[in-house]
């Protein structure tokens, strides 16, 4: 349903799991399908926002009315999000960003061998970088945790200078990666938290957009 909740605002949404190249045909990836981020982008557009979806590879259709920026790696994602940061009012980072990348991806396909090891180096923390140079933007992060969800979530709100964090316990059935439903908790700076029951990712996305409009 269309609303005017975010009319006149520009919202950047990230989605999917970044892919870190090993060679031209292989990568390190994760289980993110992009469903959560695409649902948020769809709801942001329906709420009247100019919506820019910066997405790692997925099998999903780009929602109607959304500007699409495809990326592959964490470094690509950082570059594209930073390019539009100044002009946006909110960034919602639902992407599962790889914390490490291969130090030097091979230019040619690596041939079979008995043993092989990869040297990994740390990727930039995109959200933390945005938090450090925040001016007028509202920053909404996600946290994928398997234990101590609220405690780790609160630490992320502080460390990344967030206005809101959407924490999901990805060890729960029907929540988190590659399912159509999610069960999340909104964590704000200070003590305030809001627990939501299990619901479709579209409904979670509607609640996130309503919360962002409040911010
Ligand atoms: O895509 P789906 O299959 O629908 O699954 C949805 C989801 C589980 C991927 C989503 O709900 C979710 O939890 N996304 C965040 C996953 C994650 O990377 O969590 P994190 O706790 O590792 O990272 C915390 C925050 O920092 C996230 O907003 C992340 O986008 C950001 N981050 C992380 C690492 C990094 N190098 N740069 C970042 O900006």
Automatic annotation (TrEMBL):
GO terms for molecular function: phosphopantothenate--cysteine ligase activity; phosphopantothenoylcysteine decarboxylase activity. It comes from the Bacteria. Its cofactor is Mg(2+); FMN. Keywords: Decarboxylase, Flavoprotein, FMN, Ligase, Lyase, Magnesium, Metal-binding, Multifunctional enzyme. CTP binds at residues 99, 109, 124-127, 142, 156, 160. Binds 1 FMN per subunit. Coiled coil: none annotated. It catalyses: N-[(R)-4-phosphopantothenoyl]-L-cysteine + H(+) = (R)-4'-phosphopantetheine + CO2; (R)-4'-phosphopantothenate + L-cysteine + CTP = N-[(R)-4-phosphopantothenoyl]-L-cysteine + CMP + diphosphate + H(+). The keyword Transmembrane does not apply. Residues 11-215 are annotated as: Phosphopantothenate--cysteine ligase. Its EC number is 4.1.1.36, 6.3.2.5. Residues 6-214 form the DNA/pantothenate metabolism flavoprotein C-terminal domain. Catalyzes two sequential steps in the biosynthesis of coenzyme A. In the first step cysteine is conjugated to 4'-phosphopantothenate to form 4-phosphopantothenoylcysteine. In the second step the latter compound is decarboxylated to form 4'-phosphopantotheine. This is Coenzyme A biosynthesis bifunctional protein CoaBC. It comes from Veillonella magna. The chain holds residues 179 to 393 of 393 of the full protein.
